[in-house]
From TrEMBL:
Cited function: Antitoxin component of a type II toxin-antitoxin (TA) system.
Top-rank lineage group of the source organism: Bacteria
InterPro entries: Antitoxin_Phd/YefM (IPR006442), phD-YefM_TA_antitoxins (IPR051416), YefM-like_sf (IPR036165)
Protein name (Swiss-Prot/TrEMBL): Antitoxin
Pfam families for this protein: PhdYeFM_antitox
């Protein structure tokens, strides 16, 4: 979700804004209603998530998982 936010509000709500950016939101900071800067998620954090996911997949491929274990994992993930 993209949102415009004034500089004063951005300063006062920075921790909340950073949490939202981590989850994928984007912001344009305005000064007197004029766009000044865009805040977007860092590409390096996305790269790190991707590398971690790939490493986990490769590690999981080395271990055989029975159908029963797989079903248990699915049930746990839905809780």
């Amino acid at each position: 979700m993209h949102k415009e936010i004034g500089a004063y509000e951005a300063k006062n709500k920075l921790p909340e804004i950073l949490r939202r950016i981590e989850s994928g939101d984007t912001f344009t900071i305005t000064n007197r209603s004029k766009p000044v800067a865009d805040l977007v998620p860092s590409r390096s954090s996305e790269r790190l998530k991707t590398e971690t996911a790939i490493a986990n997949i490769l590690k999981a491929r080395k271990h055989k998982v029975s159908d029963e274990e797989l079903n248990e994992l699915r049930k746990e993930a839905r809780k």
